Each structure stands twice: as C-alpha cells, then as structure tokens.
Amino acid sequence: MNLHALRIFIKVAELNSVTKAADALSISQPAVTVQIRNLENETGLKLIETQGRGIKLTKEGTFLVGHAESLFDMEKDIENKLQQLKNGEIQALRIASTYLPANFLLPVWLAKFKMNYPSVNVNLYSGNSNQVLENLLHYKSDIAFVVNEECNNPEIHLDHLMDIDYWFIVPQGHKYDGQEVSLTDLMMEPFLLREEGSSTREILFSLCKIHRVPNLNIGLQYHGLNESIRSVVAGYGTMLAPEIAVRDYLKRGEIGKVFVKGIEVRRPVYICSRKRDKELALNLKRFIDYVKSSAKVESSLSDKSI
C-alpha cells in the first residue's frame, strides 16, 4: 500500500476537506485528489464521498483511517525509542489508567518502584476506559490499567491483576450503620451517585433491576469519588464505594458500613497490553512483575479489612 497516499488520506479525513488538506500539506488540490483516487484503485474500495462543500468517509474509509492511524502511531513510537537509544537514555514507562487504579493503587506502586529504579522516567495518564484503551492502541502508553473492562477488542490482551470489593457506606451513627438490611430498604435512603457513564452508577442501577427494586432515591450527583465520600463523612447520603478508597475512613470511625442481604460487589482490575507487542521492554517487565507482587499484598489487606 502506498504510504504517501495513505498519509494524505488521513489528513483529508481529519479536516473533512480535500482543499483544507491540500493547504495543510502545501500541495495542490488536484494532487491530493489523484492520491486519493490511486488509493481507492489500489484497495478496490470507495473511501470518501462528497458532502456539501466537504467530504465524508465511507464505512470502508472509516475502517482504513482507524488502522492507518495506529500504523503511523507505531512508526512514531519506534522513532522515539530509537532516538532514546541513540541518546543513551533509559526508556520511559508510559502508563494509562482509569480513575480507581490511578488514584488508589498506582501512586504507591510507582513511588516504591522509583525508589528501586530512580533513573527510569515514568508518565501516568488517567481517563475513562475508552480514553485509556485508545491511548494504548495509539501507542501513547505502553500498558493500561482498567477496572471491570469487558473488552472485545482483538488487539488488546487482558491480564487479571486483582479484585476490588465495593461497600455500601453511610454516615457514622446512621440507623443502618453495621446493620444487615434489604436492598429495597437501603435504596430508600438518599443516594450519592456518580456521573452518567460511571461504572459504579451502572452497578447500582443493575442491582436495582436484577433485584426488582423500583426506585433509587437520588440525593446528590457528583463527578468524582472523593467528593461523594466527603459528603458521607459530613453526615449526608448513602453510596457504593470501592473498599480501598474508604477503608481508612471506616477504621477511624468517620463512616459506617452497611451489609446488604444477598449482595456482594466485587470487580476485577486488569493490566492491558497490545497483542501485537511480541516482547516488552525490560523496565516494563520489571514494573509489571512488581505490580503483580504488590497486588497480592493489597488483596491480602482487603481480605483482612473490617
């Protein structure tokens, strides 16, 4: 496949315009059109269609753009690593993670790893599951950490790391503090919910559906976990929260834990990597081995929690 034509095609797709792509690439519009036509002839597929004064991608064009971007991202990744080798630099670790591992697991693991390998540069990016996995596929990170990810992407390998328990919590001294109650009764309390798209929010609504609880009493909605926990500490609301985030609050007597009849919530944490990477860099292997041993310790702490 003509990679020069493929680069031009990506620029046309990015700007939704042959004219704008020609200006951005400092070549003539006819030259851009010729390259697109050559690419269509080479693939035997219609890649773009006119739409008003611009263009739109066909289904085949959208497919090609996605894979072409990954190809050129891989090229950039190779160039960067070769430059690091040329400069005698130690390859950096680029890690992407969803909110929970990024805030409650990785900071401690990374700090201790750096104590043993102080010369290794580490960059941590956090985002939602879709952002994190896109980051990985486009070579902006070397590995990713996700929670409860049902990933059907054939290009991603999932390696189970550990499981995280979730607790129902209430303000300290609440009538349900330390009690076993039904889900129906608990759902009548004002609940603190995460934003749309939050997996914790989805768990709550799924539990209601499975157990035929008709209504969820929504008290407040937050776009963050810590904000929700602080409201409970302040004396308002009920919520579902990861045990590692609230364990210390419970030990200090700042919140209470509720036991819900017949319900235990546990979610897996995965290390994600690209299947096409046949061999991982030495520093990355060291970090993954360290994380796996640390996860065993964290899991044992969870088993001993209140």
Automatic annotation (TrEMBL):
It comes from the Bacteria. The keyword Transcription regulation applies. Residues 1-58 form the HTH lysR-type domain. Keywords: DNA-binding, Transcription, Transcription regulation. Pfam families: HTH_1, LysR_substrate. InterPro entries: LysR_HTH_N, LysR_subst-bd, WH-like_DNA-bd_sf, WH_DNA-bd_sf. Belongs to the LysR transcriptional regulatory family. This is LysR family transcriptional regulator. It comes from Cytobacillus mangrovibacter. The lineage of its organism: Bacteria, Bacillati, Bacillota, Bacilli, Bacillales.
